[in-house]
Description:
Elements: H1 19-25, E1 26-27, E2 30-31, E3 50-59, H2 65-73, E4 87-96, E5 105-114, H3 116-121, H4 125-130, E6 135-139, H5 145-149, H6 151-158, E7 167-171
Parallel strand pairs: 3-5, 3-6, 6-7
Antiparallel strand pairs: 1-2, 4-5
GO molecular function: GTP binding; GTPase activity
Pfam families: Ras
Subcellular location: Cytoplasm, Cytoskeleton, Cilium basal body
Amino acid sequence: MAEQDRALEPGWLLSPAGRPYLDSIVHKNQRRMFGLLERPALPPALAVPTVTYKLFLAGRSGVGKTALVAWLGGTPVPPAHHETLGIEATTLFWPAKPRGSGRPVLFQLHLWDCGDGALRKFEHLLPACKEEADAALFLFSFTDRASFEELPALMGRVLDPGDRHLVRSGLHPQFSDHSIPH
C-alpha cells in the first residue's frame, strides 16, 4: 500500500508521542484485557475521542475466527480447535493517529465471534450478532477449499437486503492453517 493511501500514521504508536497511549493498553509487555465497563486510563491532558466499531466474524467451523480474536487481543491462540458454543464478545482498544490530524483517537473494537454450528442451530444469535454491527468479516481457510467456496452462500445466509450499511470483507487469517491442530 502506498504511503499516501494510508489513513493512519504508521509507527506513531511506538513514537515518543504515542508511547503513553500504548502504555495504557499494555501491562508488562502483554495486552491488557478490559471488562465491559472498563477502558484505558489516560491522564486528562491526553484524553482523546473514542471511535467504536462492532465487527461480526462469520465463517465455517475451524477457519480461525476465535484464533484471530485471540491474536488481535494479544492472548494465546487456543492450542486445539473447538467449536465456539455461542457468542463470544471481546472488546479491544487501539490508539492510532489519523493522517493529517493533530490528535489521536482511541478505537474501541467489539469483536463478535459466533460458532457456525450455534449460528445455524439458534435463530436468535444471528440478529444479535448483526444488531448495530459496522462490519461483517467472512473468514475462510486456504487448507479448507470448501470454506472459500461456501463464502457466497454464507454471505447470502448472513446478509439481508437491509444490511447495505455493513462493510463486508473476506479474510484469511494466516495462522489458522498451521498453528492450530484439528
